[in-house]
Amino acid sequence: MLREIFSNNFRSLVDFQLSINKGINVLVGPNNAGKSNIVKLFEFVSYLAHFSLHESIGKAGGAGEIFYKKNYNKISENIEITGIGDTGKFDSWIFGTTPKKNHYYYKFSFTISLVENQVFFSKQKLQMWIRERKLSIDVDLDVPDLDVHWHYDVLTDKTHAELSYSKKYEKSQFSRMHSIKKEDVLKFISNKDFVDNSLIKNLGHFVLLTSIVQDDINTGRAYNIDPQRVRQREDIAESSGILYDGSRLSSTLYAIKQANAVGPQRYPIFYFRRHVSNNSVKMIDVVNHMKLADDCVKSIDVELDTIDNRIITYINYVYGQEEKKVPIAYLSDGSIKWLALITAVLTNDGGFYVEEPENFLHPKLQEEIVRILRAKLDSLDEENFAIVTTHSETFLNALYPQEIIVTKMEFGKTIARRPEYVNDIDEMIRESGFGLGYYYVTGALEI
Q1: Structure-derived torsion over alpha carbons of residues 416, 394, 356, 312, reported in degrees to the nearest 10
Q2: Can you point out the beta strands (E) in 29-157?
Q3: Is the pTM here over 0.85, yes or no?
Q4: What DSSP element (H or E) covers 136?
């Protein structure tokens, strides 16, 4: 799990640092405080782990959107980003023995430069530590088991790379150093491909350990469900996995249906069954959560229209003795957002981000989504987190004081802090009966 992130000159995040707690981390603050910029920082880091620098910048809206604007006609020349985290992976399986589980700590950093309208990586660093047990993230981990430094000099148009690793890393199943010469790896790292590609993305061929970092920060875009987008009919060739705007809901529900079915499955010739993030999800789980919005919901059907090659999702309602089968295109904005949001949460087995989940939702459902997020994150095998932005007092009332991060803008720069004295705030809430949202709205949590 990513534990800390640092940024300098990414949008309004100047000399910015944020510690991430496992579980829910909720960003609150006035409009234009930079909450979305914090979310976009996480998204951008995820892009860099899977796409080239130029592709990542394009997905983030372009260079003009990511570099900090010093004033109306001047932007910063460098963006610096550093991330620190840790994760546990089974390192080896030996027949007849208990698998060994190491714990891996990592630190990565990027410097992205803008010179004469050219954007490139000018510096990169990746460090990893292998330990037999989990330690506090604050522990000084001393000499890394893997240490990679890369630098590009734009004036000479040359790159320089340094690589060192320990015997422990060399023996790890994530290492190929026993079969590959160090000189060959250095030659590969010194390639100019890293001017436009991160070490995390391109080093995996030689250094399998980087896949741990890549998986750990693989989050993609924040969910910001658009009911109109969800209503659009989906082609049967769509892969499953709900996108940031709620699209692919029907293909994801169909994959859940197929994964839960008993006996041989039949697929249209053009339909490819794709992976659902968490194949332990049952359709009944989705139905039960839909009943929180409307207790008349009986079931969910997902059908294939082989004439138009479309996937159609229906909600079956029971009103007394009468049953109705309603396509999701006819649901209210609140109901369709709720269905997309809970399906996205249930099928996501990693960290994720949600922007303003309260939009279109009844206050009761705003409280329920907090409970559902907590339950989902608690159920994961590895520690993970969710970043949520909100303006809703009702949503905040369902939170614990330690789950909130207060943001504000000062002189064009975003500041984010967790409230001090969370135990005192918790006690005030218990004694007064007022929720956390009340104390935020009244200014008691200002930073």
Answers
A1: 150
A2: 69-71, 74-75, 78-92, 100-115, 118-131, 146-153
A3: yes
A4: none
